[in-house]
Amino acid sequence: MSADPDLMLRPAVADDVPLLVQVMRAAREAAPMPDLPYADREVGAHLAARLSMDETWVADDGDGPVGFARLTGTWLDDLYVVPEAQRSGVGSSLLDLAKALRPDGFGLWVFSSNVPARAFYARHGLLELESTDGRANDEGAPDLRMVWAGEQPLSYLRAQIDEVDDELAALLARRTALTAAVQEIKPVGGPAGRDPEREQQIAERIAPMVPLLPPEAVQRIVHTIIEASLDAAATPGRD
Ligand SMILES: O=C(O)C(=O)C[C@]1(C(=O)O)C=C[C@@H](O)C=C1
Asked: Where is the Chorismate mutase domain (predicted)?
């Protein structure tokens, strides 16, 4: 649907903050997501403090804010539209603005339960890249990281792959060192003398944490890592 012709997108000012708190609260209460775990005063103080650090944009229909978006350098941290103005193009206008302001792409977190918001972002070309059990967010509710991969999506996604590969390399280094340490106290005699039962337990324990891979694939990866680590531990002068 096309947006209200009177709709204006403008940078937020300090006077907007109390109304933005109301927009956020109304939007959250109407959506299938956890309640906001803060008082209005705390939300207002946070938004006010972020005004000078982030880019906060208000969607104003002439009678005041009906939605707003808050962008950091790489995240769309808030995008809220009051229930009465939803499905009228306000959210799309704010999201299009975010894309124009961050042509290299951005990420956002959405609660897994918020199926309408996930569908809205998917319709606008965002990808779901990661899910969590919610332990790390203030609401303790499962969430998803979605990204808009920007105008050069291959570059954006490759940069994300490089970041994850750095983490994988660090984990691989730690794990290889642990396999070598176990060999010091309980030699299995190199790749030939492995403990298949223990390796099976490891693969079965972690497979559910990698739902996008079949359990057999996780098992192959675990075995490959252990084999290579045992090889390295048995090869003098590698470290
Ligand atoms: O847990 C052990 O007994 C180990 O030797 C460690 C380890 C591993 O790296 O996880 C290595 C070889 C065995 O086949 C099983 C597991």
From this structure: 148-237
Q: Which CATH architecture has domain 157-234?
A: Up-down Bundle (1.20)
Helix (H) or strand (E) holding 78: strand 76-81
Centre of ligand 1 to C-alpha 238, Å, is: 19
Residue 17's CB is within 10 A of a number of other CB atoms, namely 20
CA pair distance 177, 104, nearest whole angstrom: 38
> How many A from CA of 168 to the centre of ligand 1?
19
Does the model's ipTM exceed the 0.90 cut? yes
Q: Where are the domains of the chain?
A: 8-151, 157-234
Residue nearest to atom 5 of ligand 1 (CA): 182
pLDDT beyond 70 at 2: no
- What CATH architecture applies to the domain 8-151? 3-Layer(aba) Sandwich (3.40)
Among protein residues, the one whose CA lies closest to atom 7 of ligand 1: 179
Distance, CA of 221 to chain centre: 25
Entry pTM: 0.89
From ligand 1's centre to the CA of 166, what distance in Å? 24
